[in-house]
Fold:
Amino acid sequence: MVQYDDVLRRLREAPAAIRCSELTGYLEDLGFEVTSRASGNHKTAIHKENEEIPPIPFDCGHGTNPEIKKCYIKRVIQVLSQNGKYWTEKQEK
Structure:
């Protein structure tokens, strides 16, 4: 399982090189449930324990494990950063 700080660092270091399976794994490790929407490429990550954390939509694009567009990575970083207190308090316990 990855830690919150490690996920943020990885997303910030290489936002244009994150693949769909990698992002999905990170979000699941942080307590999100990732589900497919109407189109199999569109996903939504909803936190299972904290309803105050907004859902994160993203598009996996086409092909086998494609890279996520930078705009979606920026949104993930934004949501994680704005709610960082949740994970830092959880890690301290």
In short: The first strand starts at residue 32 and ends at 36.
